[in-house]
Design a protein that fits this description.
With 182 residues, the protein is mainly α. Helix 2 packs across helix 3, helix 3 packs across helix 6 and helix 4 crosses helix 7.
């Protein structure tokens, strides 16, 4: 199979997975998703000779770099808008959340948001993208042991944040365990 055919197969097979990967990381900025995904596959096309046999983790790694560029660009645009005074908040258009606005499991997202970007990414790769440690290592550009350790530490820190945010939840499970053993 030629490099062009390998690229075409990777594109057909993994376009939607890469799109979901990007969309989940551009929470609330869906207008940028197509742009970033296009950049991912542009890079993949240019480097089609480098596509590995299992290209999805490699494509996620490319997407990760493209997202970093997009986020930097978004930050620059946001600062420009703020300097120009064209912000919605400056014009009094505020959106207030209703009393039932908290979605189920929002506290997990809150706990995740308190972690470092590196911890968030390794957890998302495992949970959202359902990657194993070997594949996570490819995406992050590190060895298997390093990826395993990063995942372990990130899970530990997430659990600590969840425990901190929801002390009643963890106290309730402790009380339940004590009732069964008591």
């Amino acid at each position: 199979m030629s490099n062009d055919e390998i690229f075409a197969a990777a594109y057909r097979e993994h376009y939607w997975a890469v799109s979901r990967y990007v969309a989940r990381r551009l929470d609330g900025r869906t207008s940028e998703v197509e742009e970033v995904v296009a950049e991912v596959f542009t890079v993949a096309w240019r480097r089609r000779g480098d596509l590995p046999d299992a290209p999805l983790p490699w494509l996620y790694g490319v997407a990760r770099n493209c997202l970093a560029n997009a986020v930097r660009g978004y930050g620059r645009r946001r600062r420009l808008v703020d300097r120009l005074g064209n912000d919605d908040a400056a014009h009094g258009r505020h959106i207030a959340a209703g009393p039932d606005a908290e979605r189920p499991g929002a506290w997990v997202h809150d706990a995740l948001a308190r972690l470092s970007p590196a911890d968030q990414e390794v957890l998302r790769l495992a949970a959202w993208e359902e990657l194993g440690v070997e594949e996570i290592a490819v995406v992050l550009g590190c060895g298997r042991r390093a990826a395993s350790m990063r995942l372990h530490r990130a899970r530990h820190r997430l659990k600590a944040e969840i425990d901190r945010l929801r002390p009643a939840l963890t106290t309730g499970t402790t009380a339940t365990k004590e009732q069964h053993h008591g």
